[in-house]
Amino acid sequence: MSFHQAYKTLVEPLLGRTLTPADGSSVHPALRIPSALADYYAAVGAIDLINRPHNRLLDPSVLQVEDGMVIFYEENQGVACWAIREVDLHLPDPMVYQGQATTVGLEWYSEDMTVSKWFPVMTYWQIVNQGFQFCGYAARIEDAERAVSAHYPFLIAHVNGSIRFHGVGCQIVCLAPGGAAAAVWAAGRTEMDFRHLASLLAFEWDYSILDEL
Question: Is the model's pTM score more than 0.85?
Answer without folding.
Answer: yes
